[in-house]
Amino acid sequence: MRVGILSFAHLHAEGYVQNLRAIPDVELLGFYDPDPERRRRFSEAFNLRAFEELEDLLALGLDAAVVTSENARHRPLVEAAARAGAAVLVEKPIATTTEDARAMREAVHAAGVPFMTAFPMRFSPAVRTAREMVGEGALGPVRAIVGVNHSENPKRHRAWFADPELAGGGAVMDHTVHLADLYRWILGEEVAEVYAEVQNPFDPEGAVDTAGLLLLRTEGGVRASIDASWSRPPNYPRWGHLWMEIVGERGTLVLDAFAGHLHLWSPAGYRWYGFHPDPAQGMMEAFIESVREGREPPVTWEDGFEAMRVALAAYRSAATGRPVAPRSL
Description:
Helices cover 36% and strands 27% of the residues.
């Protein structure tokens, strides 16, 4: 299986290198990046061949491409990879506009190649268990969900996250999609309406939002919330949180997807060790397996599109002060 990475703009590309190299019979041929400094830095860091021209990497005959550019630059990379016959795994959010997202769908359909959205939390054992319990009726009918997704400000690692043109927004665009996707996946329902307050309390000099609170209603009547922020300080021991409380008529389930950890205090200082399974490894293995077997990936374009529309509806709601239906976008 011949795989290439299209841009190291997104910080998740670094982890994906390790994920791909851990899969038997996957040959990571290199990466394309238009930025000379990123080419030099990550080529040296990972002993990986860097390509200045996208066409040169695609000409090697990729079976699959992992698109990890700036959010607004996904479309041309997906279109080029599809024309070259490569399956694509696209970082979330899949786009910053519905126009670009739909154009990518048309490109992969025309080329007959698979499209998978990078939602690694679907491959968390804790999340999968929660979904099974809800599906089996262990909680009774679900009435409400409270969700939290926090992290540090990623602009400290990649400045473009604070550029509204390249990122499409801030913390709400970055974090809403994860929980919106999990709500859809766990409940089997679309989000019917979004009301949101979006602000920038954690980086007042920045140009994008750093916090948002969304109130959702699903088509089945479940009430839910999403608390999305870049509120964690740089010295926070882990990247962030993904936490949910699912309230049913006969029970309540509390999920902390990154709770597997150890705290160590010693004369050398404090260290935090996470030992939960890496959900991105499961995601990457599922993507590669679907390409090998010629079947639809487990997380589709539609999944990425619907989660993106929830984030876009949040921004529209915050601007208008009114609830917004994602399907109207």
